[in-house]
Write a structure and sequence with these properties.
The chain is an alpha/beta fold. The protein folds into two domains: 118 residues, Aspartate Aminotransferase, domain 1 (Alpha-Beta Complex), CATH 3.90.1150.10; 239 residues, Aspartate Aminotransferase, domain 2, CATH 3.40.640. It is built from 16 helices and 13 strands. It has a seven-stranded mixed β-sheet. Strands 1-12 form a two-stranded parallel ribbon. A hairpin with a 4-residue loop joins strand 5 and strand 6. The structure holds 4'-deoxy-4'-aminopyridoxal-5'-phosphate (PMP). It catalyses: L-aspartate + 2-oxoglutarate = oxaloacetate + L-glutamate. It holds the Pfam family Aminotran_1_2. This is Aspartate aminotransferase.
Length: 404
């Protein structure tokens, strides 16, 4: 048995982390990891999460019963408001079907599965992903029998958005195509459309009847403001583009391991929303029976208590602010001090946890091998891996790699 099973290659990000861990060089730097680190390169438990955990564990009525199949209602309701807005017309009219999921990955999976079962595809089952995108998107859609294709997104020449090609492709796709959009803080590039550009993207979605599959893994991480980062999603809802949103609390609440996420499907009518929800329940039942309670309870406490909610917003500003500070310091070192060849404006223009540096695979390789700076081959760096102690070492190493 199993002699026919081929050996799969290890996941490249996890492989990178393992190589970093094994490296004994004292000044090694890990820029591969997609998790927030504080200025001492330590994981950061948000103070608000500590408080909410204490409240939760001191509750004499806390039990360990199953949650409902579609999750903790106080959590999913508040989570929907967080992404769609307190005054969302879709929520007010009862058109949002929400289900708690295994973090953002589970939300993407459930959304993809729902589409695979129920979306009226124009021909074969296909989804269009940004080129590049979070690599897991490909496997998630393939797993449910949807063929992942790509649309142009990133322009290596400008290290920015390939807006013209992106828009032209959206226009040329068959009507009613399913298109995945990163709601904010695009992974891996850190390049987001401007509001004006989102408006034009929205125009094409409406004209062509495309379906918007929003993935929102970084709300709050782009600008430090939760509402600001939800702008594109809310604009699409306001303009009545058919859509769903995948939501994760891994990054913005630092609850990576608790797997707290949600899928929200906005339906055209209350009656449709009821039918959609019934099917989300059936799908969830067969896959996980019901979602895990612990993380959802913590997030529910934070979202439903005004004091904790305000504190959470401050914690998010701390994380986003430190990342923005690192962008500024790196930019200053490269442009003013080291005068590294090339244009580095993208370091401060890009958004969120990640930055596409624009360096070649060879230069990335040199950084890993010669400087003990760990990053993916595509030149993506996690800004959260930089801090006041290592930013200079990184800038000097990058400078050396660029000069060859
Ligand atoms: N979508 C994107 C674009 C991501 O970058 C990530 C995290 N790397 C996720 C979804 C899902 O993360 P999680 O399952 O940890 O919430």
């Amino acid at each position: 048995t199993w002699s026919q099973v081929p050996l799969a290659p290890p996941d490249s990000i996890f492989k990178l982390s393992a190589a970093y861990k094994d490296d004994t060089f004292p000044n090694k730097v890990n820029l591969g990891v997609g998790a927030y680190r504080d200025d001492d390169n330590k994981p950061w438990v948000l103070p608000v999460v500590k408080k909410a955990t204490k409240i939760l564990l001191e509750d004499p009525n806390l039990d360990h019963e199953y949650l409902p199949i579609t999750g903790l209602p106080s959590y999913t309701t508040a989570a929907a408001k967080l992404i769609l807005g307190e005054d969302s017309p879709a929520i007010a009219s009862g058109r949002v079907s929400s289900a708690q999921t295994i973090s953002g990955t589970g939300a993407n999976h459930l959304g993809a599965l729902f589409l695979s079962r129920f979306y009226q595809f124009n021909g074969d089952k296909k989804v269009y992903l940004s080129d590049p995108t979070w690599v897991n998107h490909f496997a998630i859609f393939r797993n449910v029998g949807i063929d992942p294709l790509t649309y142009p997104y990133y322009d290596p020449k400008t290290i920015g958005l390939a807006f013209g090609a992106f828009l032209d492709t959206l226009k040329s796709l068959p009507e009613r195509s399913a298109v995945l959009l990163h709601a904010c803080a695009h992974n891996p590039t850190g390049v987001d459309p401007s509001r004006e550009q989102w408006g034009q993207i929205c125009d094409v979605f409406l004209a062509k009847g495309h379906y918007a599959f929003f993935d929102c893994a970084y709300q709050g991480f782009a600008s430090g403001d939760l509402d600001n980062d939800a702008w594109a999603v809310r604009e699409f809802v306001r303009r009545e583009v058919p859509l769903l949103v995948c939501q994760s609390f891994a990054k913005n609440a630092g609850l990576y391991g608790e797997r707290v996420g949600a899928l929200h499907i906005v339906a055209p009518t209350v009656e449709t929303a009821g039918r959609v929800k019934s099917q989300l329940s059936v799908l969830t039942r067969s896959e996980i029976s019901n979602p895990p309670a612990y993380g959802a309870r913590i997030v529910s406490l934070i979202l439903n208590n005004p004091e904790l909610f305000d504190e959470w917003k401050r914690d998010i500003k701390t994380m986003a602010g430190r990342i923005i500070q690192m962008r500024k310091e790196l930019y200053k070192l490269l442009t003013e001090e080291l005068k590294t060849p090339g244009n580095w404006d993208h370091i401060i223009n890009q958004i969120g946890m990640f930055s596409f540096t624009g360096i070649s695979p060879d230069q990335s390789q040199a950084l890993v091998e010669k400087a003990h700076v760990y990053l993916t081959q595509n030149g993506r760096i996690s800004m959260a891996g930089l801090n006041s102690h290592n930013v200079r070492y990184f800038a000097e190493s990058l400078d050396r790699a660029v000069r060859g």
